[in-house]
Write a structure and sequence with these properties.
The structure holds 2 protein chains of 2 kinds. By secondary structure, chain A is mostly helical. Chain A is about 35% helix and about 5% strand. In chain A, strand 1 and strand 2 form a beta hairpin. Chain A is flat and about 50 Å long. Chain A starts with 7 loop residues before the first helix and ends in a 6-residue tail after the last strand. Chain B is about 30% helix and about 15% strand. In chain B, a hairpin with a 2-residue loop joins strand 10 and strand 11. Classes of the chains: A mainly alpha, B alpha/beta. Chains A and B meet through helix 1 and helix 2 of A and helix 7, helix 8, helix 9, helix 10 and helix 11 of B.
Chain lengths: ~90, ~425
């Protein structure tokens, strides 16, 4: 076993960052699976540094007004809306 | 009638005339259809109804195709079996008791069972080619940028393409003809070559130079390897020649693919917070608490695993170790393929190193499932086109052979594949 760093505490911390609730059983199970998976990812250490100078250009369109979704359409899948706005939980 | 091919079975009629008039097409449920529920196989989007059509759906309708419904899939495309769907598993019509492959398992099953003439899937790390191979049908993963992703609900945007599935190569090529081409709504699309893909399915492989990457054959099951060489023999008898090539970088493709795909997924799936769409559940608490509760309820285990691993791979202190090394590996894979394709018209390998799993067999072991993607993921990392066509059976289970071509070289792989039809 390598020094793979993802124990249950780390899993809980990452889950908090990713805004996914986990109960303790899930955190334990994920920690066990992550140990195997991260162990496998370790082999990336063997990859040499590669010169990656991709020949890419940004694609821009002219800054012109064009039709988009109406406010009603944009709100149509929201569970709650008020005065034409999305209604979300309290910020604090 | 195969069970659970569709998540939503609903006909959408296209124009009366066009090259796809009279054809029925099943569409994977992560491709937006205006007014028709699009779930991504997730409880999170159980009630999501897109207010607009994906560009490919628009093009199907304009070409006269009739959409038969939205097909079952691994949740958000994350799986190799279609078993991570929140709507239950789909059985493989070509191999009862086995999975249809994934993540576009419903689309491949729709074609294999005759529920639809054609289907659209999406391929981020093999999700069109794997189910094509497992169900004994044809599937094409186009060059990155050939087909618009506008309206495709994103999982790993730097890797994924929408691609066709069909009973034979010519039909799949005809569907590609209908959907390929530049789209102002997807800045990563490129002007398509002036090619008629269906016409390229002429079976003429006289003089075709096939490179066989040894790394992608060695790891495969014996029965699969046997069928693979039988197909190469068949192509040789039609005038093609083959030589072995080495792609040392592909030994790292699976881990590079998963690090990149999970990282992109952790960002893409941040939008599902239960406010603009998704399951809100009316949870108490502040912004963060309500989001975390909604995401706990809405996402399945495999999606949670990938979001968490992606978040971890991008977090301070680990980014250089995982994400940057994965990008190095990706560039290396690209170089290897470019080099191999300088002496070959196409590269050939088994599509999947294994035959279809039994239903339920691989769910508990995520790493085992990831390793099955060894032959398909390198192609997505290299942005190249690939086709999977049926190549016999091993122990009564379908085997597929994959041809990989140079960027925008769809004609070459279609031609090679059509010689085995």
């Amino acid at each position: 076993m390598s020094d793979t760093p993802a124990g249950p505490d780390t899993v809980r911390h990452v889950a908090e960052l990713a805004r996914v609730d986990l109960d303790d059983d899930e955190a334990d199970q994920f920690a066990e699976q992550f140990a195997d998976i991260l162990d496998y990812f370790e082999t990336l250490d063997e990859v040499p540094e590669v010169d990656r100078d991709a020949d890419l250009v940004n694609v821009m369109r002219p800054d012109e007004e064009r039709e988009g979704l109406t406010q009603d359409e944009a709100l149509s899948n929201a569970e709650g809306s008020e005065d034409g706005y999305f209604k979300g939980p309290n910020v604090s | 009638m195969t069970d659970n091919v569709y998540i939503t079975e609903e006909r959408i009629e296209g124009d009366e005339e066009g090259p796809l008039a009279g054809k029925t097409i099943a569409v994977k449920d992560n491709i937006s259809t205006e007014g028709v529920r699009t779930t991504c196989g997730s409880a999170m989007l159980d009630e999501y109804v897109p207010p607009y059509d994906a560009t490919v759906v628009d093009r199907l309708k304009t070409a006269g195709g009739t959409i038969t419904g939205k097909t079952n899939m691994d949740e958000f495309g994350m799986g190799t079996t279609t078993e991570t769907s929140a709507f239950g598993a789909t059985e493989n019509p070509a191999a009862p008791g086995h999975v249809p492959g994934g993540s576009s398992g419903g689309s491949a099953a729709a074609v294999a069972s005759g529920e639809a003439d054609l289907a659209l899937g999406t391929d981020t790390g093999g999700s069109v080619r794997c189910p094509a191979a497992f169900c004994g049908v044809v599937g094409i993963k186009p060059t990155y940028g050939l087909v618009s992703r506008y309206g495709l609900i994103a999982y790993g945007n730097s890797l994924e393409q929408i691609g066709p599935l069909a009973e034979n190569v010519e039909d799949a090529a005809e569907l590609l003809d209908a959907i390929a081409g530049e789209d102002p709504n997807d800045a990563t699309t490129r002007e398509r070559p002036d090619d008629d893909y269906a016409a390229a399915a002429d079976g003429d492989v006289d003089g075709l130079r096939i490179g066989v990457p040894t790394e992608l054959v060695e790891g495969a099951d014996e029965g699969v390897v046997e069928q693979f060489w039988r197909a190469i023999d068949e192509l040789e008898s039609q005038g093609a020649s083959y030589h072995e090539v080495s792609l040392p970088s592909v030994e790292h493709a699976v881990e590079a693919y998963y690090v990149i795909a999970m990282s992109e997924a952790s960002s893409n799936l941040a939008r599902f917070d239960g406010v603009r769409y998704g399951t809100s559940g009316g949870y108490e608490g502040n912004w963060n608490e309500a989001f975390a509760a909604s995401r706990r309820e809405g996402f399945g285990d495999e999606v949670k695993r990938r979001i968490l691993l992606g978040t971890f791979a991008l977090s301070a202190g680990y980014q250089d170790k995982y994400y940057k090394k994965a990008q190095d590996a990706r560039a290396w894979v690209k170089q290897d393929f470019d080099e191999a394709l300088s002496d070959a018209d196409v590269l050939a390998s088994p599509t999947m190193p294994v035959t279809p799993f039994e239903l339920g067999e691989s769910l508990d072991d995520p790493l085992k499932m990831y390793l099955a993607d060894a032959n398909t993921t390198p192609v997505n990392l290299a942005d190249l086109p690939a086709i999977s066509v049926p190549a016999g059976e091993a122990d009564g289970l379908p085997v597929g052979i994959q041809f990989v071509g140079p960027a925008f070289g769809e004609k070459e792989i279609i031609r090679a594949g059509s010689a085995l039809d």
